[in-house]
Amino acid sequence: MAKRKCGLCGESFSSRAKRATNKKEKHQKNQEEIPMENKENVEDKKIERKSPIQKVAKILVPREQAKEEWKKYCELLNKRKNKHYEHLKILKKTMYYAKQGKQFIDVYEVMNKAGLSSKNEPRLAIARADLTQIQFQKGDTGTGRFNMSWGWNEKSWKDDVGLPQKTFKVDWERLLKEDGTPDWEIKDKELITKVPVVPADLMPEGDLKNHYILWEVKGWEKLPEPKDPLLLKRISENIFVILGVWDLTELERAIISGR
Q1: Total domain count, the chain
Q2: CB-side exposure of 180: number of CA atoms within 13 Å?
């Protein structure tokens, strides 16, 4: 009996099936020969694909250690009430949350690790939880500032989150003069984006303006990413305690778009 052949390439169907089977068996054999350590590396690469907000490094102090440290700072501050011991108050406050099992972040390190998008825009944003939008202002030598207000009142600046030099490995693009040479002024110096809404089950006691939200920015002047915003409380200029984490629902994103 004559073998059936493909009308396009002239190859018999039985030969084509045999070649496909051999290719599959070779692939399976190659997979079986991958060393265990290489397979683990593959898993590590999958983990590395997590979003910037999922990669945030968290600081944890053992609870028993934190309890002992908190007592020591309480006793010390009872004896020393001088304003120059402000750093001791910060440590006491930190240990107060640590003995409850809370974790912390260093926002300077978090922003540095997250870095910038392909558009040279911060991948993460941080804002006071009572705000509807936040402004990021680029600064020289890879720095920047998350402005909680746009006024010139110095008192309003205390809630801002300023980043140190070389937080971002970038030389911001400059405006061009009429002759085509770079100006000293940074191009697109201010960026704005919407702030997530804190869900009811994580709503903290007291005023929302005493809390912050850290989240992944899908695109400045766009809605935030739906995954894993962090609810924070500020301890110092750069240290924040994590109070909760959640995923934004479609309804919450719709509400945010109208704020």
Answers
A1: 1
A2: 0
